[in-house]
Design brief:
The chain is α/β, with parallel strands linked by helices. It contains 12 helices and 15 strands. The protein folds into 2 domains: 116 residues, Urease, subunit C, domain 1 (Roll); 275 residues, Metal-dependent hydrolases (TIM Barrel). The chain is 32% helix and 19% strand. The structure holds zinc ion.
Length: 410
């Protein structure tokens, strides 16, 4: 009943303009006969009982008597993995949050939204007014020309002439953090998704990027840098970027520097397949041609990064709008196709991503005491990671956010 109620509340809360539902405490949920992949070992724990309480994992393994008023779900041997992490998203709507959650994603890192929608969404999740995913917000993109995003805050009017000097860069970082940003997103190169731009072309210099990183570091937040071209990516890593986004043309020397500095790589590879075909978030002939030459380059870089031991993490660079075809489960399948073991591909979306985002003590694995973010699929994803594309149950912060098959409810 609680699950059904949750689904109704989720549906209501995901409708634009609907009053938010009352926050609900996460009750006790007991999952029986679960095969568990905790993202630290390729040996699944079979036939386990998982108890979730107050949004945390209370126990895994032994089978205590379910407490009063617990939701008990018999998984009948289905497979449980940690909720997936999308480390590069542009979710800016309630409906986008719902679509992400229903595709197994229980944690997202924003890579900027136009008007601090990510900060607002994070507040709704924290208040329990909407089901997750948990949002790490980035606020407004730190880029030389703010365009329409200059309307996001009256203080941004000072950037009408651009965001280029060290003082301007630091000021924009500070406004973002004041507004609640957990990360700062900036630009090392031009965009791939605009036909008139050249993604190989560097935008901010190393010293400009350093001004951004220094200002962010002073406020205790990390910087993620959009960089397709190698020159811009190398400058970003030297300046202290924590993660490099896209990285289509990364050279071995940049990858070695990333390894040395502990920088992570979010290739957003799936997005190139959206770019390369009609429909989806991108639908343009010049971009289809561009993607055809970007895909093999990106594939080489991802393989090289993995071989060098640079952490590769999943991000799918979408708002999760109604036309989006980009999903973290698809990115995992692509990593598998590029030679990752199934466990490594899953870790890129769970434990490794959590480490890169600095949240590994509470999400990314299924351990007692960690947040109760988990998903249930029909088949063993270590046999075929595509099983993650067919989700049955999603639990975020201990709440059943999606249950597609009403089996075993007692
Ligand atoms: Zn992006």
């Amino acid at each position: 009943m609680r699950a059904m109620l949750s689904a109704v509340l989720l549906a209501l809360s995901a409708t634009r303009g609907t009053a938010q539902s009352v926050p609900r405490p996460a009750g006790r949920v007991v999952l029986l006969h679960a095969n568990v992949i905790d993202a630290s070992t390729s040996l699944p724990l079979r036939n386990a009982t998982i108890v979730l309480e107050a949004g945390r994992i209370l126990s895994i393994g032994a089978a205590p008597a379910p407490g009063a008023a617990a939701d008990t779900i018999d998984l009948e041997g289905r497979w449980v993995v940690p909720g997936l992490i999308d480390a590069h998203t542009h979710i800016n709507s309630l409906a986008g949050m719902k679509r992400a959650l229903e595709s197994c994603v229980t944690t997202v890192r924003s890579a900027s939204t136009p008007h601090y929608e990510d900060v607002g969404l994070r507040a709704l999740v924290r208040a329990g007014a909407i089901a997750g995913p948990e949002m790490l917000a980035a606020g407004v993109f730190v880029t030389p020309s703010l365009g329409e995003t200059i309307l996001a805050d009256p203080r941004l009017a000072q950037f009408a002439g651009g965001v280029t000097t060290p003082a301007q860069l630091a000021a924009l970082v500070n406004i973002n953090v004041d507004r609640g940003a957990d990360w700062i997103k900036t630009r090392g190169t031009e965009r791939a998704g605009l036909a008139e731009q050249d993604p190989r072309k560097q935008v901010y210099s190393e010293s400009q990027l350093r001004a951004i990183v220094d200002a962010a570091r002073a406020r205790g937040v990390g910087v993620l840098v959009h960089a397709h071209g190698d020159e811009g990516a190398f400058a970003a890593v030297k300046a202290g970027a924590r993660t490099i986004e896209h990285g289509t043309y990364l050279s071995d020397s940049t990858l070695r520097l990333m390894k040395e500095r502990g920088a992570c790589f979010t290739p957003t590879y799936t997005t190139l397949f959206d770019l390369s075909s009609p429909g989806g978030d991108y639908d343009s002939a010049p971009l289809q041609l561009r993607a055809a030459h970007m895909i093999p380059r990106a594939a080489d870089g991802i393989r090289a990064a993995h071989a060098l031991g640079v952490p590769v993490i999943t991000g799918v660079d979408t708002e999760y709008g109604p036309n989006s075809v980009s999903r973290v489960a698809t990115e995992i399948a692509h990593l598998r196709d590029l030679g990752f073991t199934p466990l490594d591909a899953i870790r890129s979306a769970t434990s490794v991503a959590a480490q890169c985002l600095g949240i590994e003590t509470r999400v990314g694995m299924l351990k007692v005491g960690m947040e109760a973010d988990l998903v249930v699929v029909e088949r063993n994803p270590l046999d075929d990671v595509r099983a993650l594309q067919d989700v049955v149950i999603v639990i975020a912060d201990g709440r059943v956010a999606l249950k597609r098959i009403p089996f075993g409810v007692r």
